[in-house]
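Ticket 4471: requesting a sanity check on a complex prediction with iron/sulfur cluster. Repro inputs:
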Amino acid sequence: MNDISKRPIDADAAARVFLGQTEEHMVSYLEACVHCGMCAEACHFHEVTGNPRYTPAYKLFPMAKAYRRQRSPLGWLGLIPKVTEQDLAEWEELLFDTCTMCGRCTTICPMGIDIASIVGQARKAFVAAGLGPEDLEAAAVNSRDHGSPLGLSPDKLMDRVEWLEDDFETKMPVDRDRAEVLLTVSSIEAMKYPDSLVAMAKILNHAGVDWTFSTKGYEATNFGYLAGRGDIAKTMTLRIVEAAEAIGAKTVVIPECGHAYGVLRWSGANMIGRALPFEVLHITEYIAKLQREGKLKLKPFADAITYHDPCQVSRRGGATQDARDILGAFATDFREMTPTGDMNWCCGGGGGVQAMGRAAELRHKVFELKVKQTEATGTKKLVSACANCRLTMDESKEATHWDGELLSLVEMVADALVEDDGATVQTNTPA
Ligand code: SF4
Ligand code: SF4
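Returned structure tokens:
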């Protein structure tokens, strides 16, 4: 049962607010969609369930229908059936649980309808009407009030960094007055995959980059955006922007997180109402840049591996080739899965779906698709460059008892670094 069913609300009044706020998006969808159904096969949720309700075009259909009804003469006369709580529960599931905003359907749609963006706007309107999943809302509020969705406060960040610096004997500067690069973190990494933080630091130190973390703006994930809370999305964006401005950073590097990159890079300026005074690069792009500049010395990695393209980094981010350039520099047995690159299947946990407990079963089904893709290459080592994909797939791996291995691109690169004296660099957490 969706969270919405627990709330004492006037469903019809909430629906009116929602439909009123999402008007222009519903109109453009209604005008443009020719109901060809071609997008059905593009969506991983439809692919693994065969459920016609998970056809991308259908995900907006019940809301668009209600919108049209509201705008009809009968609607003006107040003679249309009221929207019920069951209707809202269905809409919530379609907007939040069954769309990862991966954008794969957009690449297929002959009319160029960007379902992912419309879903994002509709989520905002849904939340403005006092609706939406409680766990996503809680993650957004935690980010605003405590610095991150997983409780990574500035003090905890400092504790983590001190601990990691000691254990790995590597410099992880925080709150330097000036730096060329502001490195941000995903709290998923900080709390669950801390080796990734060390790996980023090792790579930047190895390449001689002038960088720092900042306790004023460190959290790259933006659950305000995912939860449809525009106010919190802006707050989180401003924290990074102001921290970068304070130290004069020319570049803000986003860690292994897909949506964090997309939100700051593509929506950040609109959110704060002015141009971003720095370049935004995903860590994949930044490593590829260092690689091209000849600043990384890497030893070969011989195991067979394949790569999962995070949707917001490859398809919607444009860093598809960068990941391949990095792997091509040291992974001697890299195998592309099918489909791959910009047409790769989503991990099933993007768009905040990872944070929704009730969507776990659906995510595990999507993971079966990823396992098939991986094993078809003849390897069970799957690399990615997004901690959210990694967490989603790690949980599904456990739930489905898959015996493959999930790797982080950044950690692989850090493990392959060779210092000038020929020494390799320790990045795995000491036992
Ligand atoms: S954006 Fe992705 S998850 Fe959402 S409907 Fe399209 S293909 Fe499905
Ligand atoms: S592919 Fe585009 S036009 Fe066709 S049904 Fe899907 S959204 Fe509508």
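Notes from triage: The first strand starts at residue 181 and ends at 183. Leaving this open until the requester confirms.
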